[in-house]
Amino acid sequence: xxxxxxxxxxxxxxxxxxxxxxxxxxxxxxxxxxxxxSVEIVEKLEYDFSKFDKDKKSALA
Length: 61
Hints:
The chain is mainly α and 61 residues long. It has four helices and two strands. Helices cover 48% and strands 7% of the residues.
């Protein structure tokens, strides 16, 4: 599958945090939500989401 490269500024990049949080929660075996759209989107993007893994507070609402 061809991935889409993402190049964003800092402000726009913050919009990926909730998307990635939904993706992570959906991928858990007993996640609180199921958001198949977030999984589809994240898996199509060529982006280093690992930087969001460093600060778990980013995923908390």
